[in-house]
Amino acid sequence: MKKPSIVFFDIDGTLYTQEMTLPESSKEAIKAIKDDGIYVAIATGRAPFMFESLREELDIETFVSFNGSYVVAEGEVIEKRPLKTEKVEELQLAAGSESHPMVFLDHEQAAANVENHAHISESLGDLKMPYPPLSENFYKQKEIYQALLFCGKEDEDLYKNNYGTFHFVRWHKRALDVLPAGGSKAEGIRAVANHLGYTIEDTAAFGDALNDMEMLTEAGIGIAMGNALEEVKQAADIVTSPVYENGVQQGLKRIGLL
């Protein structure tokens, strides 16, 4: 197993516990490997504005956000893939006809197309995020890097089978991420590695959810958290302990960085 030079961390379920807290052991472990010269970056489905305080806390300037649609290396945007406005409009009309609400995000803010919907409140509430302001035309005024479509698993094939320009990834029982087709965290970490002069074999990645599977397969070493979904564990090279049982620290020890 090659010792990695750059490590990517997912946020929810990897750095953050279910209570949206960063274990002290994870913070200390990340500082330790940075002090040893290991490059540390984030790879998340979140928008940049949703984890600004975490970046400051960990002193991280490089990240893959929106599951690969907006990539920043040392404060510089190196790749962005906004959704096509006309396709977003088609999707919103179809979702509206099924009474499925949506939220649209650029790198700075989010907006919902309906007010006070229970599914939006529940899903974003689980991330400790406030309900977005109402703006029916937000997606026409901004570059949208990700949308959230709120529907149950029983309805998702309606969209997956009819809107091939999008990649749909479930992250909550009530919600799907809507991304450009072909985009993924895997593509994002490769872009960062290339930009900074690393190879993909130099990378390690930690994750726990379905949107991490491609990244864990792509990275030189893929580490699944002990709290990960079973299919995510199967995609990884190593399974560490859960986030709330010092999983990041233990995983870094397993790959020889601590």
TrEMBL record:
Q: Which SUPFAM superfamilies match?
A: HAD-like (SSF56784)
Coiled coil region boundaries: none
Stretch forming the signal peptide: none
Q: Pfam families, from UniProt?
A: Hydrolase_3
GO CC field: cytosol
The molecular function terms in GO held by this entry are: magnesium ion binding; phosphatase activity
By its UniProt entry, which InterPro entries does this protein fall under?
Cof, HAD-like_sf, HAD-SF_hydro_IIB, HAD_sf
Q: Which domain of life is it from?
A: Bacteria
> What protein does this entry describe?
Cof subfamily of IIB subfamily of haloacid dehalogenase superfamily/HAD-superfamily hydrolase, subfamily IIB
